[in-house]
Amino acid sequence: MKKILVAVKRVVDHNVRIRVRPDGSGVETDNVRLSMNPFDKHAVEAAVQLVEAKAAEEIVIVSIGPRGATDVILTALAMGAHRGLLLEAEERLETLTVAKLLAAVAKEEQPDLVLLGKQAVDDDSNHVGQMLAGLLDWPQATFASGLKTSPEGIQVSREVDFGRADYALPLPAVVTADLRLNTPRNAALPMVMKARQKPLAVRSTAELGIDLRPRLAIERVSSPPERPEGRAVVDVRELAKIIVEAQAEAEVG
Asked: What is the pLDDT of residues 13-34, one digit of tens each?
């Protein structure tokens, strides 16, 4: 394996309390801390580990978003990636559009493996990896909790309801990372400084000739209803009684 392409997304930091805009048009992102999507960080770590094991030679990081999204690319470069690419786009892009842009980059870069998080925490769509594999007509493995190379390609482990499932994939392939895949490293300050010296190209999405027009319209975004206050019970018997009464009321209703 020579080249790994890793897609990363800039999202509201997972430690920040999400707030919906007053007009209901979406989630508030102004003056809010943004960082790399947590699942994508596991994908970057997996790629770096493959390079450290001499199973791959180069890691290319790609992100799609505004110019400020270069900060998540720099984070990946500090973790050990070799070069980055930002496809600059100010507008909100749908998952199919993102997959088409990534497919165009993959056709240019010709990687042996594409890694990305299983989903982005800002919309939880869990679409892009599967769509990308479909557009490229490559084999795919999703929700990877284990990844290693083999003479035939790669082997991916995935946690399922009955335990663990192992899959063998020929290359090139698309793999999406679960949180259980690894523990991402924290880049030391010297690595962060060196990351700024690594190649980072910025291109316009218009160069790839992909139609960016949305096909879906978001009518309104709202916060989930507040949970009702809990009720303390004395023992299991009282809890069982409450459950029985609630079930009886639900059946009557």
From this structure: 888 888 888 888 778 878 888 9
pTM, 2 dp: 0.85
125, part of any domain = yes
- Collapsed DSSP state (helix, strand, coil) of residue 89: coil
- List phi, psi (to 5°) of 55: -90, -10
DSSP bridge pairs for 159: 164
Provide the residue type at 225 as one letter: P
Centroid of chain to Cα 127: 10
Give whole-number Cα distances, 79 to 37, 60, 109, in Å.
Answer: 14, 12, 21
Distance CA 61, CA 74 (A): 9
Note the pLDDT tens digit of each residue in 128-186.
999 999 999 999 999 999 999 988 899 999 998 888 999 999 999 999 999 999 999 99
CA pair distance 57, 51, nearest whole angstrom: 6
Give the β-pairing of 153-160 and 140-150. Answer: antiparallel
Q: pLDDT tens-digit profile of 193-244?
A: 899 999 999 999 999 999 998 888 888 888 888 888 888 888 999 999 999 9
Q: Which helix (H) or strand (E) holds 172?
A: none
Asked whether residue 37 is domain-assigned, the answer is: yes
For residue 244, is it within any domain? Answer: no
Q: What is the dihedral of CA 61, 64, 69, 73, to 10 degrees?
A: 0
DSSP 8-class letter at 98: H
Domain CATH number, residue 171: 3.40.50.620
